[in-house]
Design goal:
Oligomer: single chain
Number of domains: 2
CATH class of the largest domain: Alpha Beta
Structural class: alpha+beta
InterPro entries: Thymidylate_synthase_ThyX (IPR003669), Thymidylate_synthase_ThyX_sf (IPR036098)
Radius of gyration: 21 Å
Keywords: Methyltransferase, Transferase
GO molecular function, one term: NADPH binding
Enzyme class: transferase
Protein name: FAD-dependent thymidylate synthase
């Protein structure tokens, strides 16, 4: 399995990866001009030691590449990990890469995330952000319908602008933004992936991005079973 469906129309796909748990161990061992040819218990213990003691540079020698299709509100939360990874990793630069589809160039049919009636959440009790329990079905149904009507109106205006000859990069202003699905490639070191997972698997993370984080973990764990386990809190 290299693809997992998320939300109503989204997905995460494992595109490629570089290295393995053995790569992590050998990246650390090069300090002593040593190298293993196959993963052994000694390598696993070394990976555990590196993670436990915060020696994280060897985890930046392995990379994972994903294709992600998610609502814009998820994508913009995710993007901060690319911006922040250089500071967090202490490298002065980042191995992370992000390439996203753009409606300056494409005019494929817009797709939107629309929560079902039973998926709308109420305000949290003690926080300015996050969410609480599921609201009553009648309230959820009302807002699902209103969101669908709002999206339909925006799409009609977007298509009308295109038909009038307005350029795609301006016509997209009519599209409701936060629920609009976007597609991108994310390539990141295992350390960056684990940093994302530690924060977005947390109980207080937004529910939608939690679902994507669970998919990232499920796809990554078979590739780096020891490395990812040791880096997760």
């Amino acid at each position: 399995m290299n693809s997992i469906q998320v939300l109503d129309k989204g997905y995460v796909r494992l595109v490629n990866h570089m290295g393995s748990d053995l790569t992590i161990a050998n990246a650390a061992r090069v300090s002593y001009a040593k190298e293993s040819n196959e993963l052994t218990d000694r390598d696993i213990k070394l990976i555990q030691f590196l993670a436990r003691e915060g020696h994280t540079s060897p985890f930046r020698h392995v990379l994972v590449q994903y294709e992600i299709y998610a609502p814009l509100m998820v994508a913009r939360q995710w993007w901060k990990y690319v911006i922040g990874s250089a500071h967090f990793e202490g490298t002065g630069d980042s191995l992370d890469a992000w390439n996203e589809s753009s409606r300056r160039y494409i005019t494929e049919e817009p797709t939107f995330y629309i929560p079902a009636a039973e998926q709308w959440r109420g305000k949290p009790a003690n926080s300015k952000q996050g969410s609480g329990d599921i609201v009553e079905w009648e309230i959820g149904h009302k807002h699902t319908k209103e969101l669908m009507d709002y999206i339909e109106l925006g799409v009609k205006k977007y298509e009308a602008a295109l038909e009038d000859g307005i350029c795609a990069e301006q016509a997209r202003l009519f599209l409701p933004s936060y629920g609009l699905y976007v597609r991108w490639y994310w390539t990141a070191s295992l350390q960056s992936v684990s940093h994302f997972l530690n924060q977005r698997l947390a109980h207080d993370a937004q529910r939608e991005i939690q679902d994507y984080a669970k998919a990232i973990l499920e796809l990554t764990k078979p590739v780096f079973p020891y490395g990812i386990d040791e880096l997760l809190n």
